[in-house]
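User: quick one, fold this
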Amino acid sequence: MTFSIVAWDFETQMTGIAVATKHLAVGSLVPHVKASVGAIATQAQTNPLLGIHGIQLLEQRIASEGTADEISVEDIIDLLLENDPEADDRQLHLVDHTGQTAAWTGSRCVDWAGHLTFPGFSVAGNMLVGEQVLTAMAEAYQAKAGMEFSERLLQALEAGERAGGDKRGRQSAAIYVMKQDVYPHLDLRVDHHHDPIAQLRFLFEESRKDYYQSFRQTMPSQCLRTHSVRANQLAKQIQEVILKKAASSKFKPDDRASEATGISVAESR
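Assistant:
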């Protein structure tokens, strides 16, 4: 009931997903993206936990690179589905921080269902009018090499729609792109509309206007690594405050202190 593209841009190191479906609010559950890590889309009988755990496994893949315990993108698919009794109802595809891709389409996904993987991107869909939807998406994305990454994703989605898209109709669409910051470079959603991809294009063009771009330029930048360091610094500062209070008063730190702050040094790594 969905068609999507997940991609990693080798030139800018951006990663993102564009997706559309005949269902409500596809952007709330299907796309999962993390800067400098990769992206995963979970669809068909959607299980958002596969997306959440998939991002965690993509992070573990980075940590395991060059070791005897290195995991591949194919391993990630296997690990996500190995204990899932409904694996044959699932569809998911992913791309990692080097552009490697992997995908799964369960045998019980409603026809037409399938996926195509390439270096740097993957397209997948189910309940489609036919394979031509994915072929059109792949060709559109490949033909636009050098184009701004978010535009390439959206044009691939539009190509899939022109090729027939979801055979049940249209309802929602989304595009989610991360750069190097801990917050999205682009996060646009159309949750319920009779022509969601056209509406997504409208929002996309609005996001390119000067007033919005000027606003974005005022926002501070913090890459994932810097964010982790800063979070650790804040956690240590909080612990120092707690210890100072304990030394100067009857205040005694206990587990409630960690519960009150919600932060610990160990958790902020």
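User: anything notable?
Assistant: The chain is about 40% helix and 20% strand.
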